[in-house]
């Protein structure tokens, strides 16, 4: 993969996730600058808005299911992870990302939360994440605040 391909992969995947949200009928507003860890805002109705942070890993990434991020969980912050290797979307509320991930105490990622998504199609870890996968995950967005 060339540098240009790797450099633009994240942006391409942001647009892919936004397109997926639009296909599913969500009202999506894109941010001009990602300085608050918000890639887009989803308006559910006049009173309910969600901040969305999009993270993606290419099929060529050594750790294609591993994500490390720094954030403060809040009710209206959701992550949408995309893993190209298995063409899967994972929609997870930020508070759940915090509990499912681990807080790094040492090393280069100290203070960040690391999350390993399931690699396999079946198993205990896969079962734990099933509610966030593809259609089921996107349905969680509509349930926010109800």
Tell me the layout of helices and strands.
Blueprint lengths: L2 H21 L3 E4 L9 E4 L5 E9 L8 E4 L7 E7 L4 E6 H7 L1 E2 L9 E4 L7 H6 L4 H10 L3
Parallel strand pairs: 3-5
Antiparallel strand pairs: 1-2, 2-3, 4-8, 5-6, 7-8
Structure report:
The protein is α+β, with helices and mostly antiparallel strands and about 150 residues long. The protein has one domain (about 5-145): Trna Endonuclease, Chain: A, domain 1 (3-Layer(aba) Sandwich). It is about 30% helix and about 25% strand. It is built from four helices and eight strands, in the order αββββββαββαα. It has helices spanning about 5-25, 95-100, 125-130, 135-145, and strands spanning about 25-30, 40-45, 50-55, 65-70, 75-85, 90-95, 100-105, 115. A five-stranded mixed sheet has the order 1-2-3-5-6. β5 and β6 (about 90-95) form a beta hairpin.
Order of helices and strands: HEEEEEEHEEHH
Assembly state here? single chain
Structural domain count: 1
Distance between the termini: 44 Å
Largest sheet: 5 strands, mixed
Structural class: alpha+beta
What CATH first level would be assigned? Answer: Alpha Beta
Q: What percent of the residues sit in helical stretches (DSSP H or I)? A: 25-40%
β-strand percent reads 25-35%
CATH architecture: 3-Layer(aba) Sandwich
User: Please, what is the average pLDDT?
Assistant: 91
Shape: globular
The count of β-strands is 8
Uncertain segments are none
Strand order of the largest sheet: 1-2-3-5-6
User: Over the alpha carbons, how many angstroms does the gyration radius reach?
Assistant: 15 Å
């Amino acid at each position: 993969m060339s540098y240009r391909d790797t450099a633009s992969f994240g942006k391409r995947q942001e647009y892919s996730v936004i397109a997926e949200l639009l296909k599913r009928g969500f009202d999506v507003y894109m941010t001009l600058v990602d300085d608050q860890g918000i890639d887009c805002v989803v308006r559910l109705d006049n009173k309910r808005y969600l901040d969305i942070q999009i993270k993606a890993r290419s099929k060529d990434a050594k750790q294609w299911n591993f994500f490390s991020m720094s954030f403060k969980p809040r009710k209206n912050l959701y992550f949408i992870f995309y893993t190209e290797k298995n063409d899967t979307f994972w929609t997870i509320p930020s508070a759940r990302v915090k509990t499912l991930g681990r807080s790094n105490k040492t090393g280069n990622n100290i203070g960040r939360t690391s999350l390993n998504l399931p690699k396999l199609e079946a198993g205990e870890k896969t079962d734990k994440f099933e509610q966030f996968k593809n259609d089921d995950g996107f349905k969680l967005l509509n349930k926010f605040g109800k």
